[in-house]
Amino acid sequence: MHARGDGSFARSAGRQTLVGAILIAVAVIIGVVLLHTAPSSVTTVSASANPPTTKAPHVTRPRTTVPNSTLPSIASTTAAPQAHPPGQVKIAVANGSGVPGLAGRIRAQLNSAGYNTSVPALNAAATPTTAVYYVSGYGPDATAIATGQLSLPAGVVKPMPNPPPIAASQIPGVQVLVVAGTDIGGATTNTTEAPAGNTIAPAVSSKGTTTIAHSPATTHPPTTVHTATTVHTTTTG
């Protein structure tokens, strides 16, 4: 009822309708283009109240090489066992060499070095190799006796077996037991040990083995006894 009679309203409404149609067509075209150009996969974003937890990236740290010289030495922190004073080491010597008096000589030699040799010299079964046995805690002492006093290799030093090579009743309280073998004495048929307290020390050869010097026997020629004979003559006149 407010439109003018010259038809301007109709013309204005027609233009608006045309513009609207054009806009709609453009929107449709843009939608079609977007549908064809959009990626096929669609990422769905979940609206969660708690944000996702982000893990920190793993960082690889360079390895540091420490020189061996800076590392603590086990030997420096652990004290090595030490040998006892000789007077505190009780020794027994047994003869398994077959050489008479060998154990007594070794015993006297160790006694002169200050060791406790209160146990008399003993006899042992025939032994081819000399051995120096020790009880727990006296390994350094056995090594000192074998290598330092008897010039034997360290390989002869061994822990005391159970049972010991000598009857326990014969070696009460002994910490080191020396069993002399034929390797240092030579073999004979006589295995009787010299009386306890023999003070003749064994001679040590240049090869480091204990040898026994035997003095040659002196042979005296038989003594001839002559008797005087008196001859009497008779004179006749």
Supply the key terms.
237 residues, alpha/beta, five-stranded mixed beta sheet, two-stranded antiparallel ribbon, 7 strands, 10% strand, rod-shaped, disordered C terminus
What layout of secondary structure does this protein have?
Elements: H1 8-37, H2 74-77, E1 91-95, H3 102-112, E2 122-123, E3 131-134, H4 139-149, E4 157-159, E5 176-180, H5 182-185, E6 203-204, E7 210-211
Parallel strand pairs: 1-2, 1-5, 3-4
Antiparallel strand pairs: 3-5, 6-7
Task: Explain the overall architecture.
By secondary structure, the protein is α/β, with parallel strands linked by helices. It has a domain at 86-211. It has five helices and seven strands; from the N terminus they run H-H-E-H-E-E-H-E-E-H-E-E. The strands form two sheets. A five-stranded mixed beta sheet has the order 2-1-5-3-4. Strands 6-7 form a two-stranded antiparallel sheet. Strand 3, helix 4 (139-149) and strand 4 form a beta-alpha-beta unit. The longest helix has 30 residues, at 8-37. It starts with 7 loop residues before the first helix and ends in a 26-residue tail after the last strand.
